[in-house]
Description:
It contains three helices and four strands; from the N terminus they run H-H-H-E-E-E-E. It is of the alpha+beta class.
Amino acid sequence: MNIKKIKMALTIGLMKNRDNSNALQNLKELMQNFGEEVGNFLGLQELGQQHLNASHIQSQYMLRFERCTLNVDLVANHRTQTQVIKSFNVR
């Protein structure tokens, strides 16, 4: 599995797709482009949440695939209903 190639594709895909309504779904779809390498999607788990201020919440998620895991830090604004990926890591 070429993790560097996957990270680059995720970065470019996130920059191209400015629809911030469901960032986790966008990441899942981008990862499924590498179906042969990462395998089938097994599930999503929220690992934690932290309130940054009155309108922003930072959450940590783990997207599990058969051959790897994608850890994501996401910042959501509940007032504007937008989400931004702060960071991600493929393992």
